[in-house]
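Sample entry (404 residues):
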Amino acid sequence: MRIVPQVTVGHAGADIVGADHRALQAAVDYVAGLGQGVVQVGPGVYAMGDSLHLRSGVRVVGAGADTVLRADDGVTSPLVLDGDYGEEQVTVADAAGFYPGCGITVADERSGGFHVTVTRVVAVEGNVLHLAQPLLADYMVAQGAVAQRGFPVVSGYHVRDIAIENLTIDGNRDANAPLTGCRGAGIFLYRGHGTRISGCAVRRFNGDGISFQQSDDVVVEDCLCAENAQLGLHPGSGSQRPTIRRCTSRDNGQIGLFLCWRVRHGTFDDNVLEGNGFAGISIGHKDTDNVFRRNRSAGNRMWGVYFRDESEPMAGHRNVFIGNTIVDNGTPDEGGGVRVDGETHDLEFEHNEIGSAARPSRQRVGLSAGPGARRITLRRNRIEGNGVAALESEAGEDVWLHAQ
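Predicted structure, serialized as tokens:
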């Protein structure tokens, strides 16, 4: 019988005793050095001054709500010298609060998405912060360049076959600066192929809850993303064949489930997407050939499902919705159940409930098609109780293909 190495971490009585990111990282690095294994994280609150950096072949398991990884309070200081692409240091106005080993983000007003640098400090020399990796862009003082102590709470770069289970992430949103979902989230992956995230909760991160970029065959199941500043669940940037099932994404600032760019051949089943600031589900740039089954998208500020405005080569074609409940989204005056913008075509809706349980109706319209939409097939849906109309179209009524 093959014995898999296991290391425990906890506040007391564990193989590695500690209550911050350093103890967790020591356990992950030790197990990774053995080739594979399990890090068992005991109950308690762990102060995170940097990400827990995941390693290939390592499974990290907590005790659910009793194991809390909490982001430390952030620190921000403006740069006093431009940070140049490829440079491995930045000079800040005030280095107080930065220390060797702390996570750091460098950005300016022009940077965004993947052009933000997230790394860690390896040394402090006066007001110069020496960094573990080179800067990914130019950060100009004239453009408001800053260094901030901020990072994903859990992250994996260039990893395979890892698992994250039963952890609670406290993003400490009010004490941290925003971080783009392309470079951070409560749980963040970049080229983290084959990752499984199960039974985790991410709350109040100043950005996204769970984000994975350029990461194929990721499974996210039985997770909660709540009260994050931007997106709850964010598969993106060419992530192929994602599986997201039995998750709840609620009360996030913008969108519950956001398919970013080139998310294809995904399955999204039995999720609850409620009370988000714009939409429950958002689909757009080359997000094609995905299947959504038995999800509940309800009480979102504008739309239950929103197809973004993209040109025909770039739009989210050939997505299928089966057995979903899309109710009480928007207001009596704006928004509604499903909106198809852009030159989006070949969508299928079958056996869905699209309407409003509230009286008078909260959801203005069931399905709404913009002027470029076409070939939307409807089969045996229940589209009732919408305030203005079941169907509305700026493209002409022949956009709807009614199939038995």
